[in-house]
Design a protein that fits this description.
Blueprint (H helix, E strand, L loop, with lengths): L2 H13 L4 H12 L7 E3 L12 E6 L3 E6 L5 H4 L1 E7 L4 E12 L2 E9 L12 E10 L5 E7 L18 H4 L11 E5 L6 H13 L6 E10 L4 E3 L5 E4 L2 H16 L8 E7 L16 H12 L4 H9 L2 E5 L2 E2 L22 E3 L10 H13 L5 E3 L11 H9 L2 E6 L1 E3 L6 E4 H16 L2
Parallel strand pairs: 1-2, 4-13, 4-14, 14-18, 15-19, 16-17
Antiparallel strand pairs: 2-3, 3-13, 5-6, 6-9, 7-8, 7-10, 11-12, 12-20, 16-18, 19-20
Length: 436
């Protein structure tokens, strides 16, 4: 693909994936178009793996691990892993969400992660996620749900009632000022019944059978190129579906049938809230999969330890590009630019997993791929975010690096990045998978 085609492919990927559950479903759909075929493994079944085989495992619908079994023994080659996350900060619908008042039906929300709340105002919002219901056999089943039309809105307060908003910024009271307007309402309507009927209409599942849901609020505006030369692009969830897409493309475009090493892409839910769940990076998902890969090759415990010692992980999460309107937010000696290449993220307190050896290795892969690279360090007087990198490196005991494509407005409902950078990231990831 051309550079522009890669980014359009990314935008299509994001627009089809308005929730973590949809992101994994989109990945599965793309795997289904590949030849040779990818085989979905069941964690409750016995695995039989073949060298060169292409496999994937899904845990609870929103985390996925893909891998290609290497041609050589694990103890000789180790694992080559790229990790990213499927979730993004935003708003989630509460269990007893619907309420009526002042002639309007509103949905109560809970804040997921750390979104820039002001960016959710005056947008064409809707709902996506999954419902859980009782099927005809009496079993609990799940179904993806996505409302395509604008369904919800958070209208701003007019400046006439908030005269200092441009000086003080928009501040939203999290409990009382975030409920989203859904519809006009009459006194005869029961809020819970109205919302259940809406879900029934969208899914075809009888309202009485719908027992619970995981529903995220998303922006219905599609991704777009922008700039005088269309050198930038904007969409929701660039953090971190752009990294998931880059890793997936690198794996699919790599000549995996010739790979000596076992290649792994691990995309986790719940990074934005600390990764502490059964399907998060701080859970057992990736260690379980890696151990089962090793066991399927009859590797002993010492071989597993040897394999991990030879392994490397790229933790891919987006990076903070320099925004010249806010120079005081950055370390002047570590400004990274859009369309100037992947960013190596460094933090002495290990908020990022990078260290000198892993940084040098990644820089070398960039040079081999003829890709420029940059190095980022956060201001010392501001708190630094973290990633799955330190968590996974500590859990598995493997060398790791934290990198990302530079972007603007991280955690906004509408983020921006550079067209060239996405292609750069795919190229260096392909070089990583091909490295001896």
């Amino acid at each position: 693909m051309s550079v522009r085609q890669q980014v359009q492919n990314l935008l299509d990927f994001i627009d089809a994936s308005p929730s973590p559950w949809h992101a994994v479903n989109t990945i599965e759909a793309r795997l289904a178009t590949q030849t040779p075929a990818w085989e979905r493994l069941d964690e409750t079944a016995k695995w039989t793996l073949q060298p060169g085989g292409r496999y994937y495992v899904v845990r609870d619908d929103s985390s996925i691990v893909l891998f290609v079994q290497g041609q050589k023994p694990l103890a000789e080659t180790g694992f080559k892993i790229i990790g990213a996350h499927t979730d993004s900060p935003g708003l989630r619908i509460k269990p007893n969400a619907a309420s009526r008042g002042d002639g309007l039906l509103r949905l109560g929300v809970e804040i997921y992660g750390a979104p820039i709340l002001a960016t959710f105002t005056d947008r064409d919002l809707s709902l996506a996620g999954r419902i859980s219901y009782k099927n005809d056999q009496g079993d609990i089943a799940s179904l993806l749900v996505k409302f395509d039309q604008p369904l919800l809105r958070l209208p701003n307060l007019a400046i006439h009632m908030n005269r200092t908003v441009n000086e003080d910024g928009l501040k939203l009271q999290k409990q009382t000022e975030l409920p989203l307007i859904l519809s006009a309402s009459t006194e005869e309507q029961l809020p819970k019944a109205c919302f259940s009927a809406l879900l029934q209409q969208q899914t075809g599942i009888a309202a009485a059978r719908i027992l619970s849901w995981d529903l995220a609020v998303y922006d219905t505006q599609k991704g777009a190129f922008w700039g005088a030369e269309n050198e930038f692009y904007a969409d929701s969830q660039l953090d971190n579906l752009a990294s998931c897409h880059a890793a997936l493309q690198a794996l699919l475009e790599h000549d995996i049938l010739q790979s000596d090493s076992t290649l792994v892409c691990a995309f986790f839910d719940h990074e934005e809230i600390g990764s502490g769940s059964n399907k998060g990076a701080d859970g057992s998902f990736l260690p379980d999969v890696l151990q089962r890969i090793a066991l399927s090759t009859a590797a002993g415990s010492e071989d597993v330890a040897r394999a991990l010692a030879k392994s490397f992980m790229i933790s891919a999460d987006m990076a903070h590009a320099y925004q010249p309107n806010f120079p005081n937010a950055y370390d002047a000696d570590h400004k990274v630019g859009v369309n100037k290449g992947p960013v190596i993220k460094v933090n002495a307190n290990q908020s990022y997993s990078s260290e000198s050896v892993s940084a040098a290795m990644f820089a070398d892969w960039c040079e081999q791929a003829e890709v420029p690279y940059q190095t980022y360090s956060h201001r010392c007087d501001m708190p630094c975010g973290s990633t799955i990198g330190p968590i996974t490196a500590a859990k598995l005991g493997i060398r790791s690096i934290d990198v990302g494509s530079p972007m603007w407005a991280m955690h906004s409902i509408r983020e921006s990045a550079g067209v060239l950078d996405h292609d750069y990231m795919i190229r260096v990831m392909k070089r990583f998978f091909a490295a001896r």
